[in-house]
Design a protein that fits this description.
By secondary structure, this protein is α+β, with helices and mostly antiparallel strands. The chain is built from 6 helices and 4 strands. It has a two-stranded antiparallel sheet. Strands 3-4 form a two-stranded antiparallel ribbon.
C-alpha cells in the first residue's frame, strides 16, 4: 500500500500504482491543467503511461462514419483518426479522435485537453510542443511515436487552417 499526496492537500491510498485512486473527469470536463497536476502527482513514468492509456480508454468512441481516409493520420504507425470541426456559431473547435492503441488514443485526449474551447486561430497560435515539454512527454516517447504525435498535431493544425479558409 502506498500513500501519495495529491494537489490541494488530499491524500490517497493506492494499492497498485495509482489505479483506482485517481478519479479524473470524463473527456468533456478534461483540461490540460488537470493532466499537468496528475503528471506531477504520479511517481514514475510507468504510472504516467498507465494514466495516458486510461485517458484514451475514457475518450468517447469516434463515430465510424468519421473513420475515413480524410481524417486518418497516415504518418503514424498506429491507426489514428482525428477530426477537428466547429460545432457552434462561436467557432469553437471540437476535436474527435480514435486509435487502435490506448497510448495514442490517450495522446489524442491530451491534445483534446490542450485545444478545448479554442477557435481555429487559437489552435494555430498554440505552442503544443511547449505543453508537451511541461509534461516531459517527448523525453519518454520512442522516436517513431514522437513522429506519430507530431503528425497528429500537424493534422489538427491543417484542419484548423482549413476551417479558417472555408
Amino acid at each position: 500500500m502506498r500513500l501519495y499526496p495529491i494537489p490541494f492537500g488530499f491524500t490517497v491510498i493506492c494499492t497498485h500504482f495509482y489505479t483506482a485512486c485517481l478519479e479524473y473527469p470524463m473527456t468533456d470536463d478534461l483540461n490540460f491543467e488537470y493532466i499537468l497536476d496528475a503528471f506531477s502527482f504520479l511517481p514514475d513514468w510507468e504510472s504516467r503511461y498507465e494514466f495516458i492509456e486510461d485517458l484514451g480508454k475514457k475518450m468517447p468512441i469516434m463515430d465510424d462514419a468519421n473513420k475515413i481516409d480524410e481524417y486518418r493520420v497516415h504518418e503514424c504507425m498506429s491507426i489514428v483518426w482525428v477530426k477537428a470541426d466547429t460545432l457552434d456559431t462561436h467557432g469553437i473547435v471540437q476535436i474527435e479522435g480514435d486509435s487502435d492503441t490506448s497510448t495514442i488514443k490517450g495522446i489524442v485526449a491530451i491534445l483534446y485537453s490542450i485545444y478545448r474551447g479554442m477557435n481555429p486561430e487559437q489552435i494555430l497560435e498554440t505552442d503544443t510542443d511547449a505543453k508537451f515539454d511541461l509534461l516531459g512527454l517527448f523525453e519518454h516517447l520512442s522516436p517513431t511515436r514522437h513522429v506519430g504525435v507530431y503528425a497528429i498535431v500537424e493534422k489538427i493544425r491543417r484542419q484548423a487552417q482549413g476551417l479558417l479558409n472555408s
